[in-house]
């Protein structure tokens, strides 16, 4: 019987060369390689304010924190999502309030979200299920009307289009994942995108703007691998 592999690494030599390039440069945290990655992935999804983190959970926690979510607040989301979506909310000290999903699409039901808004609601985290875009425009309008933050969890929807544009562009923040079962994957990693210029860099490296050399091999080694799938102009190879 022929064995069909669940996954393969047809470009392993190229990936190994990219990782070695980082290690031999001596710039194993921050630096030009992370900047190249952030610019490349930003170009792919049409976002200019990009910050890379070591995983999607950290990206979501940071987005929630910058959105002002604190202990005792409520965040609307769905139980039909990755566990990390809800754990990041709990890590902020906030309470996840689960919104029902539409039976036909298993995406968040905007009408039910409107019913579950309260004076404690600080944000909505909408999860795009299995790469299928949810009702982002309707949810963005609801959040804008109530003056709360809208975050798109796009970790299963990289490159997904909605009304001709990549998902994530309607939110205050959008987050992605490079966990091994994602569209582009590596050891881990999770960039986040902000649609307000003043937010992205404020909390990177504790606010230190200087490049950090020989600090942590983990951050860049994880994030450099997806770079092998991007050309210098930001397009996929």
H/E order of the elements? HHEHEHEHEHEEEEEH
Overall structural class, as computed from helix and strand content, comes to alpha/beta
Number of helices: 7
- The best one-word shape is globular
Estimated share of beta-strand residues:
5-15%
Low-confidence stretches: 212-218, 220-225
Provide the gyration radius in Å. Answer: 18 Å
Examine the coordinates and then state which fold CATH places here, giving the name of the CATH topology of the domain at 52-203: Aspartate Aminotransferase, domain 2
**What would CATH call the class of the domain at 52-203?**
Alpha Beta
Enumerate the strands of the largest sheet in spatial order, edge to edge or round the barrel: 1-9-8-5-4-2-3
Keywords: Aminotransferase, Transferase
Protein name: DegT/DnrJ/EryC1/StrS aminotransferase family protein
Pfam families: DegT_DnrJ_EryC1
GO biological process, one term: polysaccharide biosynthetic process
